[in-house]
Design brief:
Layout: H1 12-51, H2 60-71, H3 75-81, H4 87-100, H5 118-130, H6 136-145, H7 152-161, H8 167-172, H9 176-182, E1 187-199, E2 202-213, E3 218-225, H10 230-240, E4 253-256, H11 264-272, E5 276-279, H12 289-292
Parallel strand pairs: 1-4, 4-5
Antiparallel strand pairs: 1-2, 2-3
Length: 294
């Protein structure tokens, strides 16, 4: 008795049904494959007619995907299915991508030091833009205070790449609008306006001294007097600098005109509290903070 005679034999009817199902599945797959191949041919013809080029430009990722799928096919299947590239090209791409796994040349680091992180570069540019008087050393010291290790020459290179000039050049070309934007948070301005009041013997002219916070446009009337003098101005400055409720206690810059009431003693008092007085240019028509910064 042979081994083949020991195998269980399926009924003939059941074998016929299996064969019919397999044939139907093969026919369905064949129709789908034929349609997809024809669709690829049509797309290639349309691309060739519209661009005038016979070769389709592929990215590295597209080549990798085609190479992996095409390598899994048999030579006969590649000859039948490969429509947009040659079977030999599929195998060539596969060999190239397989060789890259063992090629260390693509992993070599470029010569020189690595570039600093983007956030550090943006911080350096911001410090230089918002603080026009800061040079390379000042920016380097500020970053060191933030625990960021960076060299002075690196700061200079970053600013040069961003097209930012050194501090002396920036100071020389600084405009009034740039100054306002650089110190917007701690910028104040002061001035006088007059009020005519009717008295017993005619009109009396009062001078009202006020201070404005440029950012919020908040106005504080600091004092009113008929004939203000230097001593009165110093007392008003002490009131404005009060550490509890002084209106300009957080100021860094105070803009004013060239009125003689702004004496050297008054300027020195403000400077002792960390406020720099910025007198506007004489006969300058563009020194209105509201108009210049808008």
């Amino acid at each position: 008795m042979t081994c083949s005679s020991l195998r269980p034999m399926l009924p003939v009817t059941f074998q016929f049904i299996i064969a019919m199902v397999a044939y139907a599945i093969n026919e369905q797959l064949a129709r789908r494959i034929e349609y997809l191949l024809e669709e690829v041919r049509v797309l290639r013809e349309v691309y060739t007619e519209s661009t005038g080029r016979k070769r389709i430009p592929f990215t590295d990722e597209q080549r990798r995907r085609l190479a992996l799928k095409g390598k899994a096919l048999t030579p006969e299947e590649r000859e039948a299915c490969c429509q947009i590239v040659r079977p030999s090209t599929i195998l060539l791409w596969f060999r190239q991508f397989a060789a890259q796994r063992y090629d260390s040349s693509t992993q070599r680091r470029k010569s020189g030091r690595p570039r600093k992180a983007t956030d550090i570069r943006e911080l350096v540019i911001r410090l230089a833009s918002e603080n026009i008087g800061w040079g390379f050393t000042k920016i380097h010291d500020a970053l060191r205070g933030l625990k960021i290790k960076i060299g002075r020459t690196t700061v200079a290179s970053m600013l040069a790449e961003a097209g930012i000039e050194p501090a002396p050049e920036r100071n020389r070309k600084r405009t009034w609008k740039q100054f306002l934007k650089s110190h917007w948070e701690t910028l104040y301005a002061c001035d006088f306006f007059s009020v005519e009041v009717l008295g017993l013997f005619g009109t009396v002219r009062y001078l009202v001294y006020f201070v404005i916070e440029v950012k919020t446009r908040a106005v504080h009337v600091a004092g009113i007097r008929i004939a203000p003098d230097g001593a009165w101005m110093q007392q008003i400055a002490r009131n404005l600098l009060d550490p509890v409720d002084g209106f300009i206690r957080n100021a860094s810059y105070l803009i004013h005109d060239r009125d003689p009431l702004y004496t050297e003693a008054w300027t020195a008092l403000l400077k002792s509290s960390g406020i720099n007085c910025v007198p506007i240019y004489a006969h300058n028509f563009n020194c209105n903070p509201t108009r210049s910064a808008s």
